[in-house]
Structures are given as C-alpha cells and as structure tokens.
Amino acid sequence: MMKNKGIVTFLIFLVMTIVGIIVYDFVSKIPDNRPANPYELDVDAFAKVDTSLILYKESRNFKINFTTPTAISYQNNRIYLAGDNRLQIIEPSGKLLSEIIMDNQPRCIFATPEHILIGFKNSVEILSLKEKKINDLDNFNDSTVITSIAENDGKIYVADAGKRKVWVFDLEGRKLGEIEGKTGNEQIHGFVVPSPYFDLAFNGDHELWIVNPGKHSLENYTTDGVLRTFWENQSVKIEGFNGCCNPAHFAFAPDGSFITSEKGLVRIKKYKPSGEFLCVVAPPAVFQPNGHAPEVAVDEKGNVYALDFDKKVIRLFVQK
C-alpha cells in the first residue's frame, strides 16, 4: 500500500509539473509577455538620420481634395494629380486649373508634352493635353495590376505587377512586345514583385529603368527588353533599401540622378546616375511611422514633389 501511495503521489506531481509547464509556455507566448528577442532588428534605430546627410528642405505643402489620392506626375509647369475617380491639373502654387471625372479609380499617371496617360487596374486611357480622349488600351485581363506607366518615342510602357512584366504598346493600342526581366545572367531571374509596387521611368537620355522591387535593384533595359546594366543596395542602413519591395517609387532629376521613395521605413533619397548614394531628401521623421511610400515627381529645377498618401498633402522639397 505504501508503495502504491508513493507511485500515485509521484504521478500527481508529474501531472502538475507538466500542466505548469504548458501554462507557462502559453502565457509566455502572449505578445505582451514575450521576452525581448536579442536578435530582433531595431528598425527604429535606423529612422534617425544624420542631419549632415539631409540636403533638402520642405519649402511648402498644400492639402489636396481627395479621399484616396493615388498618383502624381509633373510636366509643363503643371502637377497632374489622380485619386478617387478624378484627375486634377494643378499649378505648382496649388491652384486648381481643371478636373476630369472618370468612371473608375486611376492608379497611376504620366504626363508628356503631348499626352496624359492614365493607368487603371487593367486598362490605360490616353488623353490629349486638352483633356480629350485619344485612345483606350484594354488588352489586359483580370490578373493584371497596372502600377506605373510611361511614354517614350511614341511607345507606351506599362508595368504590370500582377503579371510581373512590362507591356509595350504603340499609341494606337497595338501590342509591340513585353519585358520580363529575364536574362542569361544567373543573378537575374525576372522581376520579383511580392506586392503591387512596380515602377518604371525614362531618364533624360531616353533610357528605360525598371525597379525590381523584391531584389532592391534598379535595372536598365533597352526598349526591346535586353538588360544593359543594374545596381542594387539591400541594407537597412541609410544608403540601402530594406524590407519587401523597395524602392516603391522613383523619378529622375534633370541631371539623371535617381530620386527614390521607400515604404516601411518611409524616406526619400537621392542617388547618382551610377547608383551611389548621394543624400537624403526627406527622412523618416517627417512621415507617418509605418506609413505609405510617397510617390515622387521632379520638376525642371530638380525640386521634388512628394504625394504624401497618409497626410493627404503634396509636399515640395528643395535643395538647401
């Protein structure tokens, strides 16, 4: 009997111990009770920027009348602003010049000296500068997600984050080709687009540059889709790009420098045409924490217009 009683006592103790371990493990996994992870990356530490690296200042900003702003472009001393189901043409001072109501929400916009290109989820509309419709491009299907658009030498280039490729059309809407970002180089395996951030632009020399966001790189292609060169910088430090899908947006300054915008750790930076980091245009401190990457446009003087989606303002940054 004494032996059996000892066994029962031991089993009760064992069960209580196991239950205690289970309860402790459960409670310790509640977010507020978890111990600090000594290997966790402290992104906040990288939000602080040495002021000597910030070579631009915000000279002014103005509120915009959009519930959901989506895109900005600059051309001919005019700001082209899209959002909700509207397109607005605005003077740099903020004065509204005209407004066009649309059937659907525009997602991207690009203005040239002759045309206004408007990208929707899976279609493109071409307008004249007098805001008259010229053509529609609807050669897409439901899996298409248009995120960026540009025109060069009578050809329209459409970045499709859904298909992870760039489509090429003429102004009549005829498909001329596609760019998949694939090459014989083992380091390049096509465009890596984990989320709908997939930007492209032409520089002043009519060279096509496309962001490969999952690889944190900017890639230069011929207009026939052959990779010429690329540069990348994956780092949480100020000179690099971090997170998933950065840079989210970019534009070119008149001297060929890259103006880039990032999400997550929100910031705007400037790089040499060759890809070396130059300076900070706007540090994380001036944006909403964990906010959206502002879309950027650059005027003929190199001033940067940033569409702040979170604060719903257009912000002008000029060199100090």
| Major sheet: arrangement of strands | 1-24-23-22
CATH fold category name of the largest domain = Neuraminidase
Number of H/I helices:
1
User: Helix share of residues?
Assistant: under 10%
Low-confidence stretches: 21-41
Which value, in Å, is the CA radius of gyration?
A: 25 Å
Major β-sheet annotation: 4 strands, antiparallel
- Sheet-strand content, in percent, reads 35-45%
User: CATH H-level name of the largest domain... which superfamily?
Assistant: TolB, C-terminal domain
Query: What is the straight-line distance between the termini?
Result: 91 Å
Structural class: mainly beta
Mean pLDDT: 88
Task: Explain what you see.
- The N and C termini lie far apart (91 Å).
- This protein has one helix at residues 2-28; strands at residues 56-63, 69-75, 78-83, 86-90, 96-101, 108-111, 115-119, 124-128, 133-137, 146-152, 155-160, 165-170, 175-179, 200-202, 208-212, 217-221, 227-232, 249-252, 258-262, 267-271, 277-282, 295-298, 304-308, 313-319.
- The chain is globular.
- The protein has a 4-stranded antiparallel β-sheet with strand order 1-24-23-22, with no helix packed on it. It has a 4-stranded antiparallel β-sheet with strand order 2-3-4-5, with no helix packed on it.
- It has 2 domains: 2-33; 43-319, Neuraminidase (6 Propeller).
- It is built from 1 helix and 24 strands.
- Helices cover 8% and strands 41% of the residues.
- With 320 residues, it is mainly β.
Quick tags:
320 residues; mainly beta; Neuraminidase; 4-stranded antiparallel beta sheet; 1 helix; 24 strands; 41% strand
